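Before a colleague's protein record goes any further, I have to sign it off. What it holds is a sequence and that sequence's fold in token form. Would you go through it and say whether the fold makes sense for this chain? The record follows directly below this note.
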Amino acid sequence: MAIMLRLKCPSCGEVMNAAGFCNCTKCGTPIRYNGWGMLQIYRMGSPVSIAAGYGIYLDGQPYGHLANKESIRIPLPMGTHTLHMTCGMTRRCEDLTFTLTPEAPAAYVKASIRMGFWSNTIHLTPADPSEMPQA
């Protein structure tokens, strides 16, 4: 399984997948992330909501969608960030706050959906690198 990078253009906000440094597909701005940390998200496989992508929001900003059994890496500046995910009409999520530092530059998260009587909830769990799919 190839794990793509999910990048957001600092100029126009366009979200795109890339294999490394690139230029924005919308405005042409070079996107560089030297000295940044990384968030890897793995959407665990589930027959529930299999056709719907999980919407990714970091610090309130959209970062596209994540398909069933998909894993992506998102370069982020060092600091504290909050991850929120949605699925179709489901907006309930147990948000996850994490901090990237030079000593701990990577965060790993497993995402799943927990069925509920009135509403489903996206469940975000911190993970160990060994629990993540490898490229």
Observations:
- DSSP finds no helices and 13 strands in the chain.
- The radius of gyration is 15 Å.
- The chain has a mean pLDDT of 88.
